Amino acid sequence: MTWGDVSLITPEIVLTVAACVILVQDSWVTGPALESDARGSAGAWIALAAVCVSLLANFRATGDPGVAFGGMYVRDHLTRIIDIAALVAAGLGVLLSGGYIRRARLAAGEYYALLLLSTVGAMLMGASRNLVVLFLGLELLSFPLYVMAALARRSELSQEAGLKYLLLGAFATAFFVYGLALVYGATGTVDLAQLAQAPASALLGAGVALLTIGLGFEAALVPFHAWAPDVYEGAPLPVTAFMSVAAKVGAFAGLVRVFPLALPHLAATWGQMLAAIAVATMITGNLAALVQSNVKRLLAYSGVAHAGYMLIGIAAGSADGTWAVLFYLLVYVVMNLGAFGVLLLLERRGEEADRLEDLAGLAGRAPWAAAILVLCMVSLAGLPPTAGFVAKLYLFRAALQDHRTALALVGVLTSVVSVYYYLRVAYVALSGDASEAVTVRRSEPAGAALAIAAAGVLWLGLFPGAVTAAVQQAVTAFR
Amino acid sequence: MIGVSIVPGVLSVLIVVPIVGAAAVAVIDARREMAVRTAALLSVVLTFLIAGWVWIQFSPGTAGLQFEEQRTWVPGIGLGYHLGVDGLSVSLVALTAFLFPLALWASANQVHGRVKAFLATALLLESGLLGTFMAQDLVLFYVFWEAMLIPMYFLIGLWGGPGRGAAAIKFFLYTMAGSVLMLLAIVAVYLRSIPVLGVSTFDLPALLTRPLGLAPPVQSLLFGAFAIAFAIKMPVWPFHTWLPDAYAEAPPVVTVLLASVMAKAGAYGFLRFCLPLFPEASRAFGPLLSALAVIGILYGGAVAWAQGDMRRLLAYGSMSHMGFILLGIFALNVPAVQGSLIQMINHGVSTGGLFFLAGFLLDRTGRARTEEYGGIASAVPALAAAALIIVVSSLALPGTNGFIGEFLILLGTFEAAPGAPIAAILATGGLVVAAAYLLAFVGRVFHGPLREDLRGMPDLRAAEYAVIVPIVLVIFWVGFAPQALLSRSEATAREIVNGVQASASAAGPPARPAVLIDPAHRVGGPSQSRTRSVVREPAGPAGL
Q1: For residues A181-202, average pLDDT
Q2: Residue A379 to residues A175, A458, B531: CA-CA distances in angstroms?
């Protein structure tokens, strides 16, 4: 390990150190109490500062790809895009959750520390040049999420969600490790750069299939998605919000690193497999979302559906498909957190207002929040002039270019289905009368986060040029 | 990215003014309703003035785009921000800008509750509609095309009648299901630009400089994807089932916008995209679409006649009249296409007028069905007179605007091809049906013995005169002096028709269609078209 190696991983180090500081500072202030009313915890601010520093480090970095730790870690444009996606998710997550954490008396220090560590995991997955590092990132991403899902100590649903997530997640990671072993057995290497020369073999195929299970679980691809609705529903709302985007960022970073970048020569084989999974995921996610009356579950299935859309870009196997996925990830982070952020403002008699009817009459009480919710729903549905439309256009373009017409067809037709449930949410928020039981909790940080998310959705929808150029560069630079 | 330093062109201003108006409306305190309404009206009137200026400045006789603006939008994949108006769109832009002030003005009496949100949404709709008519980049067009659905969904769903929620989502899902396939077709056309033009671009004029060389089955598929999107929007029988619900449930002023402006976007799409991009498929499917048009004319008319609900009657009647426009488009000759273009404007004015009147009646009595009225002509003579004028214009009597359009369409269709006269004769039957249902409407509502409970009904108010008088003026102006409209559309209509027919002559005998017109009627001299009908690749793929 050299000084150069350390300077390359500055963004990760900043977050990790901040997580440790938060834990110490928090226990200093709150003492032994599990549910403290002490207001002195500076977790949110430390986390926010760390995220900003890490973001700056990413923007400041030069364009040359740097390799560290004996070629196991790489910091190139792709890493930077993934980092930005993960850090935006973390930053917005921190801003959005403050009010909720205080109201629900959750352990603030642990929450922010775990959130930062999980972010580091997603970033590491984007920076991995080696399957072992990818595995490390996957574990670092998911373990904090297991704990965070169970953070509400008094809620049985939350405990159940944490346990379910842990058990199924451990199962999926085991598949991943097994796949890693098979790949090593087949090729004699776990280095992603060297895999590109590996000849096709049944053993390698089996290994790659098992890796797909591990990553597919984290991305909530069908048929590995069964955990998502229950965990999304049971976990505390800010955790659900962060998890819904961070897990996707990490998983798709891994998928991009493994499939189009490391195994381009076998695209004919895994392309078919991923295309089939994408079709199943888009159809299942969208159809299941149609019948949900709980907004958290609805957004869980919507997350499944979006994983299916993004997989189109991976299955296309081309550079265009890959940068389309990166663009989609960035868009997904802002639009999904915008939607969750509005839910986080609401409270029904001290509980989460996560039923569809709780949104009724929102436009009358909080017109701006309702407008942002509508904007995010329109974007999730993939309608112009929002970012969701541009992101889908890129994906369908890549699919058609690669002659995967069936994928594009399923994509657009399921998008029509999705309009039904997204617009239902928007419609409820704009019509009807507000329920007495539901209150709107305004807070400045949450307002700022919502404004950032809404601006992101509009900016990426109306002026996508700069970000498009950045994600295109991320892919071409690798070749 | 759109450069900030560059002064926006006048067409961009047209799109931006309503958005700025919507933003202004959104920040004004909702309790200051007068201020909200004034801001909204100011922005639509300003839009109308700018659109009127564009219409007057538009120089007739040239086929190409005017007031063009072109900038890169997303250079990485060849997306452009390209606006322009030609003979096809300049009058539609003016029509849109003309109807919005009337609709927002009329909404003062008809829309109560959440006025601010209503006006902001309507302004966003105007922006989307204007953009749809001006966009010259395929994706930019699609952005406006889909973006206008969202405000329309909320206008129907939040301010409509009792069945508004269902009608709104039905409208949205239908139109979106139609247009997503168009999105894929747009991308497929774009992917052809790389081998054919050497650059990847979504720019329509650029794509039209050379034939795309699509194999006939592919061209048919792509044509179909575009055509279904436009057919649903118009709507063409059998894609019309969303129409009666949406038209009848929407607030009356929104129905005006649906019928008068949004339906035109479908017809416009056929002329702007289907015919130039897929000339061979347009000729191949022309007879089919003409047949659907005739069915729509007769079916819509017959169903309209049987309706008891005033706005459903007008809705089916509107659909029947849209059939004439489709018939004219796919006659594929200059008189018929010109007739269609002028009929789009006429239909917008006349149908808009009828729905305005229906809104006035609903506002007075709350009664939706025609049999609940009767003999009100003696109570509201001015309203009855206005209704008669607009009905007569809708029936295409000489001296009104409707005459010249339908006459040209039928004339063109008669000359179109062997077999086409049958379509024209059947369509003429549609005129008789129109007389039946429209006069039945007038008879049931305005004539006969006056119902006692309607005796005290107030006649047209000053505010309502402000809506009806401009419409009546346009009806007579176009009726007596259609030259201003015709001259603006002529060159473009000729270019579109020549483009389609030129591909037939390039295709060789096997592809020669049945709908080739008599050369004597290719009015005018040599084609003034862009290079498209001249530049042909030697191994004309059109003949494949």
Answers
A1: 90
A2: 35, 9, 39
Beta strand pairing call for A73-75 and A351-352? unpaired
Q: Cβ–Cβ of A468/B76 closer than 8 Å?
A: yes
Q: Measuring CA to CA, which residue among A409, A426, A421 is closest to residue B177?
A: A409
List chain B residues with CB under 8 Å of A469: 75-76
Of the candidates B146, B158, B165, the beta carbon closest to that of A384 is on B146
Query: Is B104 inside any structural domain?
Result: yes
Residue A297 scores a pLDDT above 50: yes
Beta strand B66-74 with B79-85 is antiparallel
Nearest to A180 by CA among A140, A145, A136, A142: A136
Distance CA B212, CA B214 (A): 6
B5 inside domain: no
The shortest CB-CB distance from B183 to any of A385, A396, A430 is to: A396
Q: Cα-flanking dihedrals φ and ψ of residue A390, to 5°?
A: -60, -40
* Segment B394-418 mean pLDDT: 83
Farthest CA pair distance, chain B? 77
Cβ distance of A465 and B74 shorter than 8 Å: yes
User: pLDDT tens, A357-406?
Assistant: 889 888 888 889 999 999 999 999 999 899 999 999 999 999 999 889 99
Locate B446 and state its tokens.
């305005």
Contacts B2 to A, Cβ<8 Å = 463
Q: Which residue of A has its CA nearest to B171?
A: A420
CB spacing of B188 vs A397 below 8 angstroms: no
Report the distance separating Cα A278 and Cα A411, nearest Å: 9
Nearest to A400 among B172, B173, B184 (CB): B184
Each residue's pLDDT tens digit, B113-170? 788 889 999 999 999 999 999 999 999 999 999 989 999 999 998 888 888 888 999 9
Distance to chain A for B75, nearest Cα, Å: 7
- pTM value? 0.91
Look at A384 and B72 and tell me if their CB atoms are within 8 Å.
no
- Element spanning A74, H or E: strand A73-75
Domain of residue A121 covers 3-476
Q: Report whether B155 contacts B164 (CB < 8 A).
A: no
Single-letter amino acid code for the residue at A38: A
ipTM over 0.90: yes
CA distance A313 to chain B (A): 15
Say which amino acid occupies A449. Answer: A
Domain of B253 in residue numbering reads as 10-543
Q: Which residues of B touch A331 (CB under 8 A)?
A: none
Q: What are phi and psi of A351, to 5 degrees?
A: -115, 175
The answer to whether residue B1 is domain-embedded is no
**Mutating which of A393, A403, A428 best tests the B interface, going by the most B Cβ atoms within 10 A?**
A393
Residue spans of alpha helices (H) in B395-419 = 401-416
B110 in a structural domain: yes
**B27 φ, ψ to 5°?**
-90, -15
d(CA A246, CA A148): 13
Mean pLDDT of A426-439: 86
In whole angstroms, give the CA distance from residue A85 to residue A362.
Answer: 29
Structure tokens at B295: 């069915």
Closest CA to B290 of B420, B402, B191: B420
* SS3 assignment, position A438: strand
- Total domains in chain A come to 1
Classify burial at A444, counting beta carbons within 10 Å of its beta carbon; exposed 0-12, middle 13-18, buried 19 or more: exposed
- Number of domains making up chain B: 1
Is the CB of A383 less than 8 angstroms away from the CB of B2? Answer: no
Instruction: List, in sequence order, the alpha helices (H) in A128-197.
Output: 131-149, 156-187, 192-195
Do A421 and A289 touch, CB atoms closer than 8 A?
A: yes
Q: What's the gap in Å between the CA of B173 and the closest CA on chain A? A: 7
Nearest partner of A348 among A335, A338, A362, judged by Cα = A362
